[in-house]
Amino acid sequence: MKNDILYDKNSTDEALDISCNVCPRKCNANRKDGTSYCKSKGLRIARLGLHMWEEPCISGKYGSGTIFFSGCSLRCIYCQNYDVSQKSKGYNISVNRLVEIFKELEAMGAHNINLVTPTHYIDYIIMALDIYKPHIPVCYNTSGYESEQSIKRLAGYVDIFLVDFKYFQKDLAQEFSSASDYPEVAQKAILQMKSIIPCDKFDSNGMMRQGVIVRHLVLPNCLQNTKEILAWVEKNLGKNTILSLMNQYTPYGKAIGNKIIGRKLKALEYKIAVNYALKLGLENAYVQDSESADECFIPEFFGEIME
């Protein structure tokens, strides 16, 4: 399947000449030489088009207008998009081209503009949204590894936060994502998101217009981590929080053969996680069947790989 929209490979921006500390890594790298932890140089995307596999209130009937950004500040060992997140597969584009993409996705009937793994491109994204704010909601689809300051900058630009909450336990965060500070960082970021958009709003068709959705991927052999996350969500965000409890884990990349997460999730593990959410009163939740744990749901990405 080819991209729904052609990239403009000849339209590139010079990388911002900054010592970058936009994400919690605070690597202070010059973004012009591509040596940052996220491997970002300029504005780079790997795929765009209508995506049907987000939560129902995001994908709806016509699809979410997704823009998959290249590179990542987290680099999880089980990432299904390894070539994109860790090898920066994709094409360089300009801010003006990003604006055009917003408009093209709108014209295709997208329910929203879905910015996937956008953290390290926040400066470019804000520049684009200053030029043109779409008439459909802007969704910030993030790993949760965000600085509070970055999230504050998005007030007035972002309508929906679709945020992962991966780890409550520091040892798991370090082993799987080399980020022992992830639990504390994610909690602060999510609370900041909720302060910016305290109420969830939907249109007459049930499509989200504003709000926060907390995603959690249940990992094998990590049920205590899941329970602690669910308990935190209930205590700090409330029982009405929209939760997406994901059953789609598949060993991938460096996770294959890992002693903890080297297998798919068992049906019993997921059932325990769902029942615990219900026990806490978190009934406003999306759940998945086991068929979602399949590589066929991984989108095909295009572009060159940056080594």
Describe this structure in words.
- The relative contact order is 0.15.
- Residues 1-7 and 303-307 have low confidence and may be disordered.
- Strands 3, 4, 5, 6, 7, 8, 9, 10, 11 and 12 form a ten-stranded mixed beta sheet that branches.
- β11 (242-246), α9 (267-279) and β12 form a beta-alpha-beta unit.
- This protein is globular.
- The chain has helices spanning 56-59, 82-85, 95-107, 122-131, 148-153, 170-177, 182-196, 223-236, 267-279, and strands at residues 19-20, 29-30, 43-51, 64-69, 91-93, 113-116, 138-142, 160-164, 201-202, 208-217, 242-246, 285-287.
- With 307 residues, it is α/β, with parallel strands linked by helices.
- α3 packs across α4 (122-131).
Percent of residues in helices: 25-40%
Shape: globular
Residue runs with pLDDT of under 50 for 5 or more positions: 1-7, 303-307
Instruction: Tell me the β content.
Output: 15-25%
The average pLDDT score comes to: 89
How many beta strands in the DSSP annotation?
A: 12
